[in-house]
Amino acid sequence: MERSKKDDCQGGAFTLVKRRALVGLTLCAAVLAASYPMLFGLEDYPEQIFYGRDVYSITPASSTATLNSSFVASLANQSWATAASPEVYVLSSWDGVPVIARGVQLPDFLAIEDASIVEGGGTGDSFVLAGEGFASRRGLGVDSPGILVGSKTPGIESVRITGIFRSDGPSRDEVLIPFGLSWKLGGAASGKFTAVRLRTTDPDGMIGFLRATGSAFAVASESGTIYLNTQTGGDSRLSGLVFLYPEIWRELGRSYVQSFAQQGANGVRVVVLAFQALITMLAVLGIYAVVWRATKEASRPIGIMRVTGASPIVITGYLLKEFFVLGSLSMFIGIVAGYAVAWAVGSYGVFYLFSHSVMPRLDISLAMITYAIVLITTLASTVMCVRFSLRRPPRDLIGAVEPREEEIFEEALPI
Amino acid sequence: MLIRLATRTSKKTLATALGIALCVMVLSGSISLLDGLQSSTARVADRLDEGPMLVYSTVPLEDSRIDQALLDDLGDSYSALRTVKVSISYGGIPLQDTIVVSVSNATFLEASLAGLGDGEIWVGGALLASAQEKNVTLPQGSFLNVTSIHTSLALKYERVHPSTLLPDEWALATEETLKLLDPSLEEDASFLLVNEDSADLPKLRDAGLRVLPTAASVDFFRQGVNSLQPVLWGLAIAVGSIIVVLTFTLSALEVRYRSAEMRTLRQIGASLRFLLGLVLLQSLYVAAIGTILGLSLGSIVTNAVVSIAPLGGMATFVLPAPSIAGLAIPAVVALIAGAIGGFVPAWSAAKRTIAKGVPSRS
Question: Is the minimum CB–CB distance between B224 and chain A shorter than 8 Å?
Fold first, then answer.
């Protein structure tokens, strides 16, 4: 039986759980706290682009519904509409680097985005404004030349940056272009918009107005997407068929690209969800290992407590209290450290998805979820491990004798 | 004897191996999903139409130059375009500074350019707007004064050119007219439009030219998925670090279980080297069982995730792709972590045994 002086004096007010055993808990909490905001940020990615904070995005939900200038004007004239920005989204590239070129009416866009032009400028239908993030990432300034290409239909546009704009939203990684250019590059009919982004004081009034038009619209916001005057859904099996039978796409033509993009986005989501599940599972396993080891190291004091008459419930309660207090502290440190990493990743724009820097979702509820997962796993593991220890005779616990066990195979390899 | 001792398997050994297997499963599954996402996307994207490929040397596009010697080696599936910067005026009134472009070997723009003759110019809508702004009436058939840095020509205004994939404000002229405006062009091209299936594209890339699709949405998505790789690799590294710690802990505990045996072996004369070898082999054995189990589980779980996803409304074409990296990285991580996790406690235990003065013949 070997034991050090350290083993006897567990130190301070905590007599059973060694503090160093909790370093593992800090690590597990830190990994969860750093990865959850990144993964949820990846999931939020499309929504971040298309509506933004306190902004509703109205898009046509059928081929018969259209967003044109007169519709936008009637929408913007409503008393409950405080800002409206018609927009055309073009999945383009700047000299081969993926970028969303957003066709906008500059004053409307700057108003709804709370954005400002920090360098150069643009007037009327003659501007190409780069978001600050995209410009700094690509080393672009006013008058930098570049090539924008078409989205679904071929197109080439040799352009120069006329200004740089600042925005706190995802548009900081985009390029703003006039409607005329966006319709050409997007292969869309002139006068039609992809979406209208709207800020309103009366969401119910807006929904009522859209419903009264009789056209099918999708209204997306932070609280979800609702469909008006239509059923939701589409043919999600299309991509699977094309994957199996590649010749089909030629029959489908370019409209298949939309389905491809949708299913590709799903692919990203599946991978992200799988990562969330796998990381959570790994953290649970790690926490269990940490608690297991800490409980093993506490065998001797547990044995002494048993000998001095402490009931299993008292010992379990004691361990739970220690794991709760020390565990909470280590989890707090881990969560703060993890959030700091996630914050740094978001602030310095380390990771990019498509053309946008990934913004981690750093909110208190996610931190609380992380804390709850780690704490519940810790306490559940404690109960499981201590139950196993308490089944053994106190003498074995005090003597740190390992539980006797028969080998299931005398020789694993026939040598 | 060493191998026989090292490969004894108890329930605890299996529990340790199972723990390592779960770790290996996570890492292997993550890599497999990432590779699957990338390869599936690339395979589907390759089947989609990306339009003709734009091949150029520099930006702005009008400053790009492609040597004629390179064009001689190309097949027929391309169009060579030549550009000249010009100022266009009419009746002494400047109307527009723009680019005049010609298309030779018009594989792609043949229909749009039908009817364009030498000495003629087809202008963009912007020039007409400019003329209107300046109260200039521009009758069809009138001659515009087109001035480049080399010369000035009177070119017949025939019509506004039809919409093409080229910038709308550019003007169109024939190749002969372009060579008159800029004799330095000779047979060089400014840029090319090449069929996306052309076998010449790798050659053009190798020549240092830039190649990009003129319809970007597919490439946007393909590059987007590629850009996801570093994000998830970062997470995989974080996961890997936990795996190292976890495997180390599990291996160390396994050694701890067998410390009594080690002491006994020392007492009956086993050398320190023998003990270290034994523990290292034990750890590698456990890690190897865990690795094999984990790699199998990884494959099953990732396929299950992808199969179940459509039930949650997320139809996707992602198929997990087993790769050498997906098999080798988790195996190497687990085996190294297992070896370290065995060696360090074994060394410490062996040293302690000597320090305590346990009799040994070695």
Answer: yes
Q: Which residues of chain B have pLDDT under 70?
A: 1, 12, 106, 228, 231-232, 235-236, 238-258, 309-310, 312-318, 345-346, 348-362
Instruction: Collect all residues of chain B within an 8 Å Cβ-Cβ radius of residue A42.
Output: 228, 231
Q: Which two tokens stand for residue B42?
A: 């690339």
Interface of B with A in 140-169 (CB under 8 A): 163, 165-168
Q: Is A224 left (phi over 0), alpha (psi -120 to 50) or beta?
A: left
Q: Which of A1, A47, A17 is nearest to A324 (CA)?
A: A17
Measure the CA–CA gap between B198 and B74, rounded to whole angstroms: 9
Show residues of chain A in contact with B355, CB under 8 Å. none
Tell me how far apart the terminal alpha carbons of chain B are, to the nearest angstrom.
18
> What SS3 state is found at B352?
helix
pLDDT exceeds 90 at position A159: yes
Distance (Å, whole) CA A146 – CA A80 = 40
User: Model-level pTM?
Assistant: 0.75
Counted across chains A and B, CB pairs separated by less than 8 A come out at: 263
* Average pLDDT value for chain A: 80
Q: What is the CA radius of gyration of chain B?
A: 35
Q: Does B213 touch chain A (CB under 8 A)?
A: yes
End-to-end CA distance of chain A: 33
Q: Is the model more confident about A254 or about B23?
A: B23
**ipTM value:** 0.75
- A3: which 2 tokens? 């034991």
As given in the structure block, the two tokens for residue A209 are 């107005």
How far is the alpha carbon of A78 from chain B, nearest alpha carbon, in Å?
Answer: 34
Residue of A nearest to B211 (CA): A96
- Whether residue A310 contacts residue A354, with contact meaning beta carbons closer than 8 Å, is answered with no
DSSP-derived letter for residue B189 is B
Is the pLDDT assigned to residue A181 strictly greater than 50? yes
CB B70 within 8 A of CB B51: no
Shortest Cα distance, chain B CAs vs residue A209, angstroms: 30
CA distance A258 to chain B (A): 9
- The C-alpha of A287 sits at a distance from chain B's nearest C-alpha, in angstroms, of 9
- Cβ neighbours around B114 below 10 Å, total: 9
Q: CB–CB of B48 and A257 under 8 A?
A: yes
